[in-house]
């Protein structure tokens, strides 16, 4: 346990210091992953508790992270409490905090003695209750007076695991039977996904390596359904990596797909995904907003713009994001989104359709971007997103899917 605590604390400390988990090496140890992601989901609560345990503060990020990991274990895992404390003390010494080892022991043992009181006190603080930054909580309450608590609660939960069977090669019913044969329970969820009762390692999914199935959040699977390409169409996925939505588009129709992304390494991930599924796409590493750098002048009938965003709808999957974002970041993302939308509109042929997508729940990145674009673009109109549960394009995170925003835009024929 000591080694897992050390490694998880190192990951959490990177986030506390302002670095994304995406820039850390991959972690295969499930215990380290659970401790890292669980601690980050509940970091706000642990920080409020630490203010009571250490009124003068903990200035060293790695030591703060280790204490947060220990507090997470004591509150949210089945590990024996005194084993957690003893191992955390050993971890402190292993991390070079020999002089702080006694403090780690005293702080965690005090938490065990005063747990109910300390947790109750933390719940009185908004960050302690919801484990999101105060500005984030305030923004959600302003934009979603009735749904804010549910959105925040979703951010504290483990994300659901949905799979997308390749319907060219199987059916939902048949693949559900294959899952059942492996002891994996699953049920249908819109639009055409299977939601696993409990997450499982990808290697347990029957036919995964053979391209029979992909892991993709059910909310993300609406993109291909809404864009609805037909055989023979030229289709652009403008921010394609890591390739989940692009692969889905290739599965639903025989199209000529261009997969574009500014990050060559992530585009390589998309190519590996296509290879696993036996799909073909033209992959281009380029900035979608710099149209002249990559466009051959032949228009597309369909464009998918899965725009860079705050990720506020998927923070339970990426819990570091809530601690790395700053209030001003939202306006910066919105500016990038407007620029991309304006640039990509010119590559869409008249009569074509563009689907604007974010995995954000913040209005400034969603409706405000689209409304401003429609107000400035005479040949653009909003089309109905048929089948989507909400008429306004919002999918709020819940037990079945993450949070997304969809806007289907049609280009008028002159």
Protein model, in words:
- The chain is of the alpha/beta class.
- It has three domains: 2-129, NusB-like (N-utilizing Substance Protein B Homolog, Chain A, Orthogonal Bundle); 162-215, 2-Layer Sandwich (Alpha-Beta Plaits), CATH 3.30.70.1170; 222-411, Rossmann fold.
- 45% of the residues lie in helices and 15% in strands.
- The strands form two sheets. Strands 5, 6, 7, 8, 9, 10, 11 and 12 form an eight-stranded mixed sheet that branches.
- Helix 1 (2-16) packs across helix 2 (30-41).
- The radius of gyration is 23 Å and the shape is globular.
- The model has no long low-confidence stretch (mean pLDDT 94).
Any key phrases for this structure?
alpha/beta, N-utilizing Substance Protein B Homolog, Chain A, Rossmann fold, 8-stranded mixed sheet, 12 strands, 15% strand
CATH superfamily of the largest domain, by name, is Vaccinia Virus protein VP39
CATH topology of the largest domain: Rossmann fold
Query: What is the arithmetic mean of pLDDT?
Result: 94
The top-level CATH class of the largest domain is: Alpha Beta
Topology:
Layout: H1 2-16, H2 30-41, H3 43-53, H4 61-76, H5 81-94, H6 101-123, H7 126-130, H8 134-143, H9 148-155, E1 162-165, H10 172-181, E2 186-189, E3 193-196, E4 213-215, H11 222-227, E5 234-237, H12 244-252, E6 256-261, H13 264-277, E7 282-285, E8 300-306, H14 320-324, H15 327-345, E9 348-358, H16 367-376, E10 380-383, E11 394-395, E12 404-411
Parallel strand pairs: 5-6, 5-8, 6-7, 8-9
Antiparallel strand pairs: 1-3, 1-4, 2-3, 9-12, 10-12, 11-12
Helix pairs in contact: 1-2, 1-4, 1-5, 2-4, 3-4, 3-6, 4-5, 4-6, 5-6, 8-9, 15-16
């Amino acid at each position: 346990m000591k080694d897992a605590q050390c490694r998880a604390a190192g990951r959490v400390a990177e986030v506390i210091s302002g670095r994304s988990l995406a820039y850390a090496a991959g972690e295969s140890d499930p215990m380290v992953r659970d401790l890292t992601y669980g601690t980050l989901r509940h970091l706000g609560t642990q920080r409020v508790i630490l203010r009571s345990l250490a009124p003068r503060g903990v200035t060293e990020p790695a030591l703060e992270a280790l204490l947060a990991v220990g507090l997470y274990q004591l509150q949210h895992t089945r590990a024996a409490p005194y084993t957690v404390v003893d191992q955390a003390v050993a971890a402190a010494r292993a991390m070079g905090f020999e002089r702080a080892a006694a403090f780690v022991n005293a702080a965690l043992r005090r938490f065990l003695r005063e747990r109910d009181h300390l947790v109750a006190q933390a719940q009185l603080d908004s960050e302690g209750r919801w484990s999101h930054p105060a500005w984030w909580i305030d923004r959600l309450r302003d934009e979603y007076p009735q749904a804010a608590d549910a959105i925040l609660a979703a951010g504290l939960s483990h994300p659901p695991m949905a799979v997308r069977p390749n319907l060219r090669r199987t059916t939902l019913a048949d693949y559900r039977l294959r899952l059942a044969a492996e002891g994996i329970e699953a049920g249908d969820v819109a639009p055409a996904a299977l939601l696993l009762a409990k997450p499982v390692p990808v290697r347990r999914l029957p036919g995964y390596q053979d391209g029979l199935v992909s892991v993709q959040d059910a909310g993300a699977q609406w993109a291909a359904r809404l864009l609805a390409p037909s055989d023979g169409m030229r289709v652009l996925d403008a921010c394609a990596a890591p390739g989940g939505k692009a692969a889905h588009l290739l599965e639903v129709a025989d199209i000529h797909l261009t997969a574009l992304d500014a990050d060559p390494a992530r585009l390589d991930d998309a190519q590996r995904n296509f290879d696993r599924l036996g799909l073909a796409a033209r992959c281009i590493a380029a900035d979608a907003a710099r149209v002249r750098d990559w466009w051959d002048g032949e228009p597309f009938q369909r464009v998918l713009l899965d725009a860079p965003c705050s990720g506020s709808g998927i923070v339970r999957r990426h819990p570091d994001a809530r601690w790395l974002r700053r209030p001003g970041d939202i306006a910066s993302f919105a500016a990038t989104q407007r620029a991309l939308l304006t640039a990509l509109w010119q590559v869409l042929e008249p009569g074509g359709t563009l689907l604007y997508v974010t995995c954000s729940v913040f209005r400034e990145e969603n409706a405000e971007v689209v409304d401003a674009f429609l107000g400035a673009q005479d040949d653009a109109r909003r089309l109905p997103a048929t089948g989507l549960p909400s008429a306004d394009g919002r999918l709020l995170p819940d037990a079945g899917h993450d949070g997304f925003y969809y806007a289907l835009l049609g280009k008028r024929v002159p």
